């Protein structure tokens, strides 16, 4: 008799699809979509449906390694604790750092954040989610007073107009895209607009595509705000009751140059879009990395939010701004404070009352009063020798950070580097003094939160291989070895979940949105059976939309509109092309998992560069030839794909490929460490590069 299927959650993108996983009795598993899960109702994309092909033993890290030699857990844990404790004693708490990941489960994230902020006493914990959605977090906090995604996935199906901006949803969030396409098939009057410099696969479903100039989003949405005002689409009642800053925001939009100048879009196309947006009550604007990954990412987010606030199209069925997150648990990390500028449960690090509440709750010996180092700053500090002990969990910054070659050298030069991962030979793992084997998807237990605030369980299907341990266990054991055993004496992820659910009730009393206090009393059995649930969960409500009552989380209770101005980047004649980077349909991050599936690797088998035919012909680049791409920070070789999907002067490269040499198409070696000043998110879609035939 075969083993029963286990309900769990896909470990890839932020859609957070439910998966039924069945062990095959030979160490592997088969998967199908979970028809009862409200994110996907049984659908899976190519990556999710290939999960069974990516859980094999190849390349797994099976035992701790200490300075290149196999070691036992007691030895490895003691060494990590000793080196961190000595470094802190000698150089202070800010001489150490954790760089964590949106691949961690929420319970792992919570324990890492508690150790760094409450016990080590530094805020130097940041995450690869900084590269993914930090600008959305910052934009939400500026406009709403907290990091709230207002709507639900149902809004995307109920809208009469879905605007997808800076989002190749068809490849990066395929099941959500399928839901929109199905809704449009059932109701053809639904309109879809795609705003993207590239003509991506997402445009296949679009009624209108706006191939705007990269970086001109603020100009586009400022122009929309102006049009909304002129066309009478602004909601005077909503502004009066629930919004501040409208006059200033509108004045900034009016004083800006006409959108045609910056976006490069013809007047007629712009006005068609503006008229459609103004004339459609039920409009959802979905945005993702094309908006976030920018030196002006936070302003771009607020430019979108401004338009929804001006019209009151927020918090009601089929309308609202909607940030979709890249990673499976970027949202969970946000909720438990895994960012250098936040406390657990959306509490504010700079707020003394919030710090005091968390400190008391944790019975913590100390608590930082200032923000820690955000991802790019953190690796700069590693390079300067200011960070002397670094623990990297479940991520591969030696290839995924901007200026990856410099980051790789910085990690290699750090006095003490710990890497906990499932894979033995990542580009980053090779640089570690201590390697700690972690359990991966299918082997661990915990929760993740998807883009619509839905908490779902990841469950164990397979045994942990070798000596691999869960991330929360590894962190708690190091904390105990550093002398804080009683605060980290967890026996299960359920116990950790109850702890932060309780803390969320305190956060709610302090005026925060993240409230799952209704789950604080779950028994172990309840937690084991926990069905997908959207937060908030408290005594008065479960899930649903935020802001339906027109009340926000700012001190005044009113949302804030912001005056915004475009900030075009200067050209660099030595590097005349603008490099856009992103995902391909069938791979995930640096391919440590999806690279194991021959099926997934068939779709795009090698790194490539999309280049416009006019540029290819001018530069002598042949289709399927090799292009050499250089920037001030690096060099890469890629197969040339000549296509008019990209605009002249712009090129696109996928971000997944890794390797020791620059010749292997590593996109992030080319990306500059330019960040948004508010969010600290790097501009991963605007590197200046030069191109030549190789
Ligand atoms: Fe997994 Fe995302 Fe695909 Fe769903 S859409 S199956 S969460 S990768």
From TrEMBL:
- Which stretches make up the 4Fe-4S Mo/W bis-MGD-type domain? 3-59
Tell me where on the tree of life, at the top rank, the source sits: Bacteria
Protein's UniProt keywords contain Metal-binding = yes
| Keywords from the named record | 4Fe-4S, Iron, Iron-sulfur, Metal-binding, Molybdenum, Nitrate assimilation, Oxidoreductase
Which cofactors does this protein require?
A: Mo-bis(molybdopterin guanine dinucleotide); [4Fe-4S] cluster
- Could you name the Gene Ontology cellular component terms for this entry? membrane; oxidoreductase complex
**GO molecular function list:** 4 iron, 4 sulfur cluster binding; metal ion binding; molybdopterin cofactor binding; oxidoreductase activity
Biological process terms from the Gene Ontology for this record are: cellular respiration; nitrate assimilation
Instruction: State if Transferase is listed as a keyword.
Output: no
Family that this chain belongs to: Belongs to the prokaryotic molybdopterin-containing oxidoreductase family. NasA/NapA/NarB subfamily.
Protein name from the UniProt record: Assimilatory nitrate reductase (NADH) alpha subunit apoprotein
Lineage start: Bacteria, Pseudomonadati, Pseudomonadota, Alphaproteobacteria, Rhodobacterales
Q: Which residues of the full protein are shown?
A: 1 to 694 of 877
């Amino acid at each position: 008799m075969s083993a029963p299927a286990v309900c769990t959650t896909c470990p890839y993108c932020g859609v957070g699809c439910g998966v039924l996983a069945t062990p095959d009795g030979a160490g592997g598993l088969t998967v199908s979509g979970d028809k009862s899960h409200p994110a996907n109702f049984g659908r899976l994309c190519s990556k999710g449906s290939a999960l069974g092909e990516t859980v094999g033993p190849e390349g797994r890290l099976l035992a701790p390694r200490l300075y290149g030699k196999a070691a036992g857990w007691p030895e490895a844990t003691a060494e990590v604790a000793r080196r961190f404790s000595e470094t802190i004693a000698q150089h202070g708490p800010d001489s150490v750092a954790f760089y964590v990941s949106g691949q961690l489960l929420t319970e792992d994230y919570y324990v890492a954040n508690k150790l760094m902020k409450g016990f080590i006493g530094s805020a130097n914990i940041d995450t690869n989610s900084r590269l993914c959605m930090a600008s959305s977090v910052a934009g939400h906090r500026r406009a709403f007073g907290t990091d709230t995604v207002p709507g639900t996935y149902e809004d995307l199906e109920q809208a009469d107009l879905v605007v997808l901006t800076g989002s190749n949803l068809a490849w990066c969030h395929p099941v959500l895209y399928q839901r929109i396409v199905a809704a449009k098939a059932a109701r053809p009057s639904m309109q879809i607009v795609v705003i993207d410099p590239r003509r991506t696969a997402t445009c296949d479903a679009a009624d209108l595509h706006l191939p705007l100039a990269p970086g001109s989003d603020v100009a586009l949405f400022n122009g929309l705000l102006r049009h909304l005002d002129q066309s009478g689409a602004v909601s005077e009642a909503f502004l009066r009751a629930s919004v501040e800053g409208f006059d200033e925001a509108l004045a900034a939009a009016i004083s800006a140059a006409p959108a045609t100048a910056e976006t490069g879009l013809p007047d007629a196309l712009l006005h068609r879009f503006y008229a459609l947006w103004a004339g459609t009550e039920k409009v959802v604007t979905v945005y993702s990395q094309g908006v976030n990954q920018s030196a002006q990412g936070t302003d771009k987010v607020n430019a979108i939010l401004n338009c929804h606030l001006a019209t009151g199209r927020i918090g009601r069925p089929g309308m609202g701004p909607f940030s979709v997150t890249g990673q499976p648990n970027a949202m969970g990390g946000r909720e438990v404070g895994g960012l250098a500028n936040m406390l657990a449960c959306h509490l504010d690090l700079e707020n003394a009352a919030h710090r005091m509440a968390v400190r008391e709750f944790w019975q913590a010996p100390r608590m930082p009063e200032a923000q820690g180092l955000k991802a790019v700053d953190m690796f700069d500090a590693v390079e300067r020798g200011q960070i002397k002990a670094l623990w990297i969990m479940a991520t591969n910054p030696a290839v995924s950070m901007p200026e990856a070659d410099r980051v790789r050298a910085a990690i290699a030069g750090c006095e003490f580097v710990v890497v906990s991962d499932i894979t033995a030979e990542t580009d980053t793992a090779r640089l570690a003094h201590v390697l700690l084997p972690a359990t991966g998807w299918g082997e661990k237990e915990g929760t993740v939160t998807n883009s619509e605030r839905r908490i779902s369980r990841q469950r164990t299907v397979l045994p942990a291989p070798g000596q691999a341990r869960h991330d929360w266990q590894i962190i708690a054991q190091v904390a105990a070895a550093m002398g804080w055993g009683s605060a980290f004496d967890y026996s299960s992820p359920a116990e950790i979940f109850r702890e932060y659910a309780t803390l969320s009730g305190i956060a709610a009393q302090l005026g925060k949105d993240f409230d799952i206090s209704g789950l604080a009393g779950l028994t172990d059995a309840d937690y084991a059976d926990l069905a997908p649930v959207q937060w908030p969960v408290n005594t008065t409500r479960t899930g649903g939309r935020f802001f339906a009552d027109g009340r926000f989380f700012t001190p005044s209770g009113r949302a804030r509109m912001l005056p915004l101005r475009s900030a075009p980047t200067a050209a660099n004649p030595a590097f005349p092309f603008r490099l856009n980077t992103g995902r391909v349909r069938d791979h995930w991050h640096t391919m440590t998992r999806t690279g194991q599936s021959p099926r997934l690797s068939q779709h795009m088998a090698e790194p490539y560069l999309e280049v416009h035919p006019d540029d290819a012909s001018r530069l002598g680049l042949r289709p399927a030839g090799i292009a050499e791409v250089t920037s001030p920070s690096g060099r890469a070789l890629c197969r040339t794909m000549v296509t008019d999907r990209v605009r002249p002067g712009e090129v696109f490269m996928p971000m997944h490929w890794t390797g020791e040499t620059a010749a292997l198409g590593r996109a992030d070696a080319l990306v500059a460490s330019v960040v948004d000043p508010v969010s600290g998110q790097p501009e991963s879609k605007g590197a200046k590069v030069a191109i030549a035939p190789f």
